[in-house]
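Team,

Forwarding the record for the chain on the shared tracking sheet. I've put the sequence and predicted structure together so nobody has to dig through attachments.
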Amino acid sequence: MPIVHDIFNPAHYRKIGLPLNECEALPRWAFTSEEFYRREVEHIFLKSWNFVGRADEIPNPGDYVTMTLAGEPIILIRDRAGTPRAFANTCQHRGARMLEGKGNVRAIKCPYHAWVYGIDGALTGTPDMEQCVGFKREEYGLAKIKLEIWAGFMFVNFDPNSVSLMAYLGDLPRQFESYAYDDVVVTRRVEFDLDCNWKIYAENSTEVYHTPTVHGASLGKQLADYVPSKGNWSAIHMPGEETCAVLPSDASPFPQIAGLKGRPRHGTHFALVFPSTTLCCTHDCMWWLAVYPVSASKSLLSVGSCFPRSTVARPDFEEVVKKYYHRWDLATPEDNWVTSVQQAGLASTLRIAGRMSWNEPVVHDLAMWVKDRVIGNLAPA
């Protein structure tokens, strides 16, 4: 097969938008090309709402966490009024990164030349700048990043002209309302370096086609139905009357979330909020799988575990929750391994565009969503 050089030619993508039982997957270069990846950063990650964590992870004024999203260093911090804020983690003097990891500060001080910013982003201290003609501190506050919250989930958007988060999410908040996620808290967050493109992991997290093979000895075979959705998300629903957050051999140890009704009451949702965050929502808890791109073939995976406050307050919580962590600690490395295997195989120039299974509706939705933003905004060849 000849190597394709015109990778943004719409002709290469015409079969992606066909119905699921007729369509093809994204071409190999969509997962391997740095040029394609840079286009994704520009047209997807810098223009979409990206999940960055829970507001309860920074509960007090001055609490902060830092992260890097598609190459952009970010500070998430709660100001003195109690409002979570997002800023670029770069000094407005000469660009040094200012905070690392997580913690609590009364002010943000640059480690290079000691410029000082309030936790509201305002520049308050500038040593030896008195002789600079026309210098005004108020013009050099930290660069703000749009941050909005749904049910305690924090999202950022680098595009100042973007639609609101609620408009972006469409009917997801309504369909998931009975999960009462305003009342959950994060109990654990772990991260993994992935040897795969971000889309590979996002695809894997929302299809059960792979479970008999990859998770045969742990989770076993699973069945799921496609969930109709409106907005920038897509989901499957796995029917069942018990939580899927523990291994099949374990009895359900925690009570159901109070007030569950409809589909949430009768199964588990795996909802991909585009571009790259899967909310895994079951009867008694939820966990997220957030994939942050690093390059065309590298990503960072964040796995967060959340439980209702009443569950966390139980005297036996620390002992019982080990069953949940064990399930995730068993399945996650299996997925991490198989996605690296897929990435390695995509290096072959002989790979043709694959056909989709009826078990992969969200994979199909993601492919069309990516294609519309990376290819659809370009003039036809």
